[in-house]
């Protein structure tokens, strides 16, 4: 079974950007692309800060500016697609928000989630992936090794929070190809894999990194091998923000999984997880 469990529901390009719409016709374009590429099931996992129901959590202009959509409308369009028999799952991409994590989970309770992703895009008020030289970025205020340590501290905290089922782009911190010495990197990957195993959550293999400055899959083969050795379940992800990218570069992702000996994919329904063979 092949899944794509990370994408953002958007309409067709308008002036070079993809408008966020909660409409069945937009959703169907993602499903059609999945079918073209042999992807059996997809999950929509919109950024949690887009929804007014979570507004009290956010402090940064980036999030507050986007926090204008109705979570019920989002859930309803995916429920409608399910009713029509389309192979879609309801999810969100949940942020690491530190001491507000429990409150964020409370706000999300009561919705029929199939899968919740967890991501670290910010460390405190500083963005990890807004640009290497962004004014509000982490890279201009901390040395590279400190950024990596802070990132993995946040990732471990998030993994153990109960707020998610799958860690998204688990080594996003490599996005600008700025890394500490390889020995430090490998220790951090080992510690992260141990924390993920202890938390009982899965990780995604994401092809999005191939489209970023680093030009690599997330996670690093060493990190994935450390997870696989601990029998951490794995999902597949494109992180598509447009329908054309569903299932993008999956040949690369499947080859990486084969290299580290992963033969099963984690499949989610109602936040319950089971394993299915990747092949057949
Ligand atoms: Zn993300
Ligand atoms: Zn995403």
Sum up the structure in keywords.
two-stranded antiparallel sheet; 8 helices; TIM Barrel; seven-stranded parallel beta sheet; 33% helix; 280 residues; 18% strand; 11 strands; binds zinc ion; alpha/beta
Structure write-up:
With 280 residues, the chain is of the alpha/beta class. It has one domain: TIM Barrel (Alpha-Beta Barrel). The protein has helices spanning 24-36, 61-66, 71-83, 101-108, 144-159, 182-199, 221-229, 250-259, and strands at residues 3-4, 41-47, 88-95, 115-119, 122-123, 126-127, 166-167, 202-206, 234-237, 264-269, 272-277. It has a seven-stranded parallel sheet with strand order 1-2-3-4-7-8-9. Strands 5-6 form a two-stranded antiparallel ribbon. Strand 1 (3-4), helix 1 and strand 2 form a beta-alpha-beta unit. Helix 5 (144-159) packs parallel to helix 6 (182-199). The protein is globular, with a radius of gyration of 18 Å. The protein binds zinc ion (ZN) (2 copies). One zinc ion is lined by residues 6, 8, 93, 239.
CATH-defined architecture: Alpha-Beta Barrel
H and E order: EHEHHEHEEEHEHEHEHEE
User: CATH class, anyone?
Assistant: Alpha Beta
- Shape designation: globular
CATH topology: TIM Barrel
Number of helices: 8
Which cofactors or ions or other ligands sit in this model?
A: zinc ion
Q: Look at the structure and give the mean pLDDT.
A: 97
Sheet/helix structural class: alpha/beta
Distance between the termini: 6 Å
